[in-house]
Amino acid sequence: MNSVLILILSIPLIEIYLFIKIGSSIGAFNTISLILLTAIIGVTYARYEGFNTLRSGIAQLVRNEVPFYEIVSGAALTFAAILLIIPGFATDFLGLLLIIPVTRKLIFNAFSRRLVKKKNTHQKKDFIEGEYRDMDEK
User: Is residue 138 situated within a structural domain?
Assistant: First the structure.
């Protein structure tokens, strides 16, 4: 079975389970309040981090450097804000991990190492081996 399909099916199940467990512990009103509070605080902090990333990217452009990390970080912050807007505790946790700069950098390093490893294993060679014969000599 496709891993994306499993992910799409498992996220709502995990969220429902967490809603039931946390709601039974702290109450329904507190659960709803906590979800709204994490969404508001998370999106506000994502906006703050987004402006910091934009400022850093512009500074790198002024120095004639490619702001690769800032571009990827901006995309991750957008995804994190979407995760925080979606109601649920698991998506909020993942969104908060992506918003915090230290954990975002750790996640990027893990993915970049995995991509470099995959690239090195599937790397094409720059030359073609073979024999040739000069047709003009006859």
Answer: no
CB burial string 77-112: b at 16+ within 10 A, e below: beebbebbeeebbbbbebbbbbbeeeebeeeeeeee
Residue 18, pLDDT score: 92
Q: How many domains does the chain have?
A: 1
Reported pTM: 0.73
Contact 111, 63 (CB under 8 A): no
Domain of residue 45, residue span = 3-122
What is the C-alpha to C-alpha distance for residues 25 and 103, in angstroms, rounded to an integer? 29
Does the residue 133 lie in any domain? no
Tens digits of per-residue pLDDT, 35-68? Answer: 999 889 888 988 898 899 999 999 999 999 888 8
